[in-house]
Design a protein that fits this description.
The structure is a single chain. With 239 residues, this protein is of the alpha/beta class. Helix content is 41%, strand content 14%. The chain has nine helices and seven strands. A seven-stranded parallel beta sheet has the order 3-2-4-1-5-6-7, with helices on both faces. Strand 2, helix 3 and strand 3 form a beta-alpha-beta unit. It is globular.
Length: 239
């Protein structure tokens, strides 16, 4: 098995687990933002949709991209996740949309991913992106997560949806130091204009397909271009 995995890729892959304490904090919007950045750069991107009850990523991207549905409550969820990484193209970025409130189910997934990463470092590397909310539960859960054995560094995402960096008053120096100690970083994801996000969420249109829509206006194109410029600046050299 080890030789099979070792010979299955030339360029290493990157698995990014988008995790959060609960829904509504901007994790899915952050995921599609980073995915859009990689797609524009020509990087192969595939998705893991673990949000079984709200399949926004699957609904919008499943028509044109590889999207694996994985129920984290199943005993073989970690196995399925590793299989999704193995089957992704070489050099791919695999974006995993993890539902909120699933940290107990994630323990087994983290363990399997950590084992695979340790024994097959040439296959893929793993990053965890924690999308921060404005309430104490988000910080408390993140601190508990940082106490666990994790498969990769934890990066703290402060989505612009909720305001400026100073609005995240619970992100103190101690928390930032814990993030840095994990090998992670702190960053801000630019907010997608609401009418463009609605095209994704309501009309199930992937961001890389928006400009090809017949009713996508010149003004829409300018707004999309401005957002893409902000995204390129925010994510240049990351992940």
């Amino acid at each position: 098995m080890k030789n099979e995995l070792k010979n299955s890729t030339v360029l290493p892959k990157t698995l990014i687990l988008f995790e959060k304490e609960k829904g509504g904090v901007g994790a899915t919007g952050s995921l599609i933002t980073l995915a859009h950045h990689h797609i524009l750069a020509g990087t192969p991107v595939s998705f893991i949709e673990a949000s079984i009850t709200q399949r926004d990523v699957y609904n919008a991207y499943g028509k044109h991209h590889e999207v694996k549905l994985i129920d984290l409550t199943l005993s073989d969820a970690g196995d399925m996740l590793i299989d999704a990484v193995v089957s992704a193209p070489e050099g791919a970025v695999i974006m995993a949309n993890i539902p909120g409130g699933s940290l107990s189910a994630l323990d087994e997934v983290h363990a399997v991913v950590a084992y695979a990463s340790e024994h097959m470092p040439e296959l893929f590397n793993t990053n965890i992106i924690w999308t921060m909310g404005l309430d104490h539960a988000s910080k408390t859960t993140l601190l508990a997560l940082l106490e666990c054995d994790l498969p990769g560094p934890v990066h703290l995402n402060l989505p612009r949806w909720h305001g400026e960096e100073q609005d995240y008053s619970l992100v103190d120096e101690e928390l930032v130091d814990r993030i840095f100690a994990s090998g992670g970083d702190v960053f801000v994801t630019p907010a997608m204009p609401k009418h463009l996000y609605d095209l994704f969420r309501v009309h199930q249109i992937a961001t890389d397909r928006m400009a090809s829509q017949a009713n996508f206006s010149f003004g829409n194109r300018m707004k999309l271009g401005m957002w893409e410029k902000a995204v390129a600046a925010a994510f240049e050299g990351r992940f």
